Amino acid sequence: MPASEPGSSGRPASVTIKTGEELLAVYESLVLMTRAMLELARNQRWEELIRQQARYVVEVETLRRHEAGLSLDNDQREHKALMLEAILANDLAIRDLLLQRRDEIGERLGTAQRRRSLNRVYRQGTALTSDETRLTDEY
Fold first, then answer.
1. pLDDT per residue as tens digits for the range 77-115
2. Structural domain count, the chain
3. CA–CA gap between residue 49 and residue 69 (Å, rounded)
4. I want to staple 27 with a disulfide (CB 3.0 to 4.6 A). Which of 10, 63, 83, 109 is the partner?
5. Parent domain of 78
6. What InterPro entries does this protein map onto (predicted)?
7. CATH no. for residue 43?
């Protein structure tokens, strides 16, 4: 099995999770991954963020498949809750940055569309002016 990517738990995502410690290791991996993804978003490294998100989804899917049958003691549940809070906080910050990026791209697209429309109108106006000039020159 291939080694997992940096920022993950250090084991392949396909490993079966059998103990609470292994489960918490996956959550810790998710905390690290979301922290790394947040840094990528802050640095506007969007393509790398997309690749990291794909790995994140695989890790979450692994967690989903294996978590149901495991029970955690109180300390483990508290640790899991703290990690979930960190994951959710990172996720929210990433989403905010992605929404800002979406809005920036929307503004740029809007500007480009307005510019294209103005150029079209200008070309049409120039063509009309040329036609009018030709007509007045003929008379």
1. 999 999 999 999 999 999 999 999 999 988 888 887 877
2. 1
3. 32
4. 83
5. 20-138
6. FliT (IPR008622)
7. 1.20.58.380
